[in-house]
Amino acid sequence: MCSIIGYTGRLYAAPILVQSLKRMEYRGYDSVGIATINNGKILIRKGIGKVAEVNESLDLGHLPGQIGIGHTRWATHGGVTDKNAHPHPGCTNDIAVVHNGIIENYSELKAELIGLGHKFKSQTDSEVIAHLLELHYSSHRDIRQAMIETCKKLSGTYAFVAVFEDGTVSGARYDEPLIIGIVDSGCFISSDVLGFIEYTDKAIFLDNRDIVVSNRDRLELFDFDGHSVTRPITQVAWELGAAEKGKYTHHTLKEIHEQIQTIIEAGNQNNEKLYSFCDILSNAKNLYITGSGTSYHSALIAKHLFSRFAKIRCETIMSSEFQYMLDAVDDKSVLIAISQSGETADVLQAVKIARQMGSKILSVVNIPTSSVARISDSFLSVNCGPEIGVAATKSFTGQLSVLYSIVDTLCNGCVGISRDKSEIIKAIELVLDDEIKIAEIADTMEDTKDIYILGRSLHYPISLEGALKIKELAYIHAEGIPAGEIKHGPLALIEKNTIVIVINPSDATYNSTISSAYEIKARGATVIGISDKLDEVYDHFIKIAKVSDPLFPLVEVIPLQILAYYLALKKKADPDYPRNLAKSVTVR
Ligand code: F6R
């Protein structure tokens, strides 16, 4: 949700912190701040807006000092104001803190601290960390002890980094990611590898209850009980840093176009890993698939594919609902978690609950070093590179590509995607060639308040996914509806010029769905068809190529992504950073 970064080293901290925050801005972008240490004094600048805006107005990058911390915020407690922006100092200026997560017991702690004379400046839960540290640090000036005492007091989920006036930077983690990047004479402490990948590929992934204390001479790791811990140094892939926009105006558009390659990458799984994943899966007594948002839509498609081609029954459960549906989850169950980030709090909670009940955990993630991947018995990586646009695009088709490979393995190649992806790639190229035409259709929809998207069978999850993209990118109400259900109620919503998008490729669902399109048209709707087969019922037609039936979802979602992107531009919304959202939802 928020991004946090700490730096200590030989270089000037402020410009590095600003650059790191820009790279991690996808995690939250309502306010920004940094703190550096210069001549033993903590200097803080912070304000509301995106990193580039705040940097321009407050000249963040010119704060002096070689030690510092930084933050981009996604507000949870307290409005979007300069005062609520991080870093937060205590009462004296000896300590400043940046935090990601939620301190659940902050009101009790705050009352206690106010009773001891502490004065709070913000409405955030995070500020209690600064005052707690100050309380424990002021008594014996022992940073290690102050960190331990503070962590013991906090409940909730958190990763925080604090800077102390003596030049020490210290971080702690509990259920939020925190990663150390090792550089000469110092280190980074960051929410994401992207925060430091320009400077080092040597990373230490902290575990829950780990604390790090670092300055130029030392890097010390210990747990909340004060016991030293050692964690392996992992070499992370430099490609993780390939997050530039290139020739595209937005990351989202670039990522939509990248799908030609990323679908192939995702499908190229290591056979040994794939077989061991499928072994665990096929031995499940009960199989569940979970995910949130877009990743849940992938789960819905997987359910169809498993049932139709591998004859494996499974249940899909939204991660946020998982805790309420535990009746049959046991030690003979297998849970497949699907997640781009591998850090989504709801997904992690589902995984942990299933693990506690003895289930095996499989996962499909884009970040192989993520918490979900690390808890899993076996995971497959989507390999689509960093997805910076907050709305999932290439990670969705990447997840589908991995899921198709799993199904192909389970049914001895009956879907055929493992053998040959050229058909799919050609079909996606054709859709991308139609980008301008799709943009023109978006032009005709400028004043639309509601959009309905119909699809049956495998196309229904795509209608949900298309609607989600339109909602989050263009702020237009959109709803995915199973085409067969329209006559059971939603038809009442259709009136003259209501926009209805019909996903209707020529497979077993075609005849029924075209009938639904006529029923809607008869009530005055404007019908947009996405199909390989033209029909006079469509007011606008987006042609997709004919591919083998089960693979249509990979193709038909792309025009919906493009449409959502251009609707966002029409609405003057920023497609990369939709309002109120964050890419990695690490709070429940
Ligand atoms: C939609 C979107 C979100 C995510 C959801 C889960 O475009 O990006 O709905 O799909 O927050 O995120 P991951 O896949 O990282 O668990």
Structure report:
The chain is α/β, with parallel strands linked by helices and 588 residues long. Strand 2 (31-38) and strand 3 (41-48) form a beta hairpin. The structure holds fructose -6-phosphate. Residues 292-295, 339-341, 344, 347, 391-392, 468, 472, 585 line the site of fructose -6-phosphate.
What's the arrangement of secondary structure elements?
Layout: E1 3-8, H1 13-23, E2 31-38, E3 41-48, H2 51-58, E4 67-73, E5 88-89, E6 95-103, H3 106-115, H4 127-140, H5 143-153, E7 156-164, E8 169-174, E9 179-183, E10 186-190, E11 202-205, E12 210-214, E13 219-223, E14 234-235, H6 251-257, H7 259-267, H8 271-282, E15 286-291, H9 293-310, E16 315-318, E17 333-339, H10 345-356, E18 360-365, H11 371-375, E19 378-381, H12 394-410, H13 422-433, H14 435-443, E20 450-455, H15 459-474, E21 477-482, E22 499-503, H16 510-522, E23 526-531, E24 540-543, H17 552-570
Parallel strand pairs: 15-16, 15-17, 17-18, 18-19, 20-21, 20-22, 22-23, 23-24
Antiparallel strand pairs: 1-4, 1-10, 2-3, 2-4, 5-6, 6-7, 7-8, 8-12, 9-10, 9-11, 11-14, 12-13
Helix pairs in contact: 4-5, 7-12, 8-12, 9-12, 9-15, 13-17, 14-17, 15-17
The protein binds fructose -6-phosphate.
Residues 292-295, 339-341, 344, 347, 391-392, 468, 472, 585 line the site of fructose -6-phosphate (F6R).
What strand order characterises the main sheet? 3-2-4-1-10-9-11-14
| Largest sheet entry | 8 strands, antiparallel
Instruction: Please work out how many helical segments DSSP would assign.
Output: 17
Q: Which percent range describes the beta-strand content? A: 15-25%
Number of strands: 24
The ligands found in this model are: fructose -6-phosphate
Low-confidence stretches: none
